[in-house]
Amino acid sequence: MDLISFACLKYLLNSFLLGVTILVAAIPEGLPLAVTVALAYSIDKMKDENNFVKNLAGLFSRLN
């Protein structure tokens, strides 16, 4: 006697594959939105702290 029938196992496998397919399709769609929200939050926080970059060359010299 089988614990899980072949039809049930096939249904579970198809459901799992459908879920993975939806995730693979949805993650790249939401990535630009997540990056935009994160940058907007960071910029707003920097503005509240009066943390501005007035000379872009100075910023690059500090990063190197």
Structural commentary:
With 64 residues, the protein is an all-alpha fold. The protein has one domain. The chain has two helices and no strands. It is rod-shaped and about 70 Å long. It starts with 5 loop residues before the first helix and ends with a helix. The mean pLDDT is 80.
Describe the sheet with the most strands.
Answer: none
* Poorly predicted runs: none
Strand content: under 5%
Quick check: average pLDDT?
A: 80
H-E order? HH
- Report the count of strand segments: 0
Number of helices: 2
Count of domain modules: 1
Q: Supply Rg.
A: 24 Å
What is the 3D form?
Answer: rod-shaped
- Range of helix content: over 70%
First-residue to last-residue Cα separation: 68 Å
**Which structural category do the helix and sheet elements fall into?**
mainly alpha
